[in-house]
Structures are given as C-alpha cells and as structure tokens.
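Structure tokens
________________
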Amino acid sequence: MALCRASVVGAICVIMICTQRTNAEPVSKWELADALPPFTPSTCVPPNQRERSLFDLAASAIEQGDQEIANWLEIGAQKYLAKHQFRTEGGRRVAICTPDEIFRKVETAFEARKGLGKGRLVEYQLELAARLPSRNQYIVEAIGKSAFNPHAQESDIFKQRDIRPFARTILATFGGEAKAFQTLAYE
C-alpha cells in the first residue's frame, strides 16, 4: 500500500514538472497537496438496509438526471457517491462499502449521457469518476480536458484554487484508460 501511494505521488511529481505550459500558471504556484489522490479506506463493511437504500436512491437520482443541466438532487447524489460513507460501529468509525452494482448504474447513466454533464468539472465529479471501476471514453475525455486545460479550473470549494493538479492525479489513476493523454502529459 505504501509503495502504491509512493508510486502515485512520484507520478504526480513527474506530471506536475512535465506539464508546465507557457500560457498557464507556472507549476511552482501549484500546491502538491492539491494533487493527492482521494482517500480510500483499506477496509469496509457491507451496507445495512438503510445505507443500501441511500446508495440505491443516489444512483437512481443520477440515472434520472438531465443531460443538459444537473439539478440539486443529482448534484447531491454525485457528492454522496463521490465520498466514502462511514458509520459508528462498536465505538469506532468504519467505512461502508459502496456496492459495485451502484457504480455500474452510475457508469451506465454517464455513458448514456456521454459524460458527467455540461460545464466544467468540479472536485466531487473528479472523485466520483475516480471511484468508478471503469470509465468510458466520455468520462476520460472530460477529466483529461479539465486536467490539461490552459486556463485555471476553479475549485467548487475554495475560491481562486486551481483543481487541474487534482484532475491530473485522477487521470493518472486511470492507467491505460487515459492513454490518449499520455503524450500531452509530457509536452
């Protein structure tokens, strides 16, 4: 696990150094912390009936979403599934496993609408894409365009914070799925 995290951090450093562009902010202004991959718990427990129904509800909200403009329910559902859920069990906090079929439903919905939606991507969408077992070409392309956009991609959470380093980290975790952006990373 430590070797895997070290490899990802090393890849991030290479990407950050190799992707400086003359018309974009210099890499020296980017913070490495912005490029750390999302937290993934090492163990999780199966969801109980209530938790499972919440996962189903979130997936259904995404499936029912509009292709043009995301509504508040869909945004909330994407945010819910982007983060690992936790509960207290026996006095300690434990992660809840998100069932694979939930992510398959979300993948299918994103494939039907040819991506994550219109407009620029924000952190929760990047995190949700990272949690999917596989990504279709539309998702990979949207993350790649965000990661290598010549203009700063403003954070949805922090004002005047560029999320391109985070998008590049997410893209790097896609491995072979992101091959189309491999040469761009080294330009």
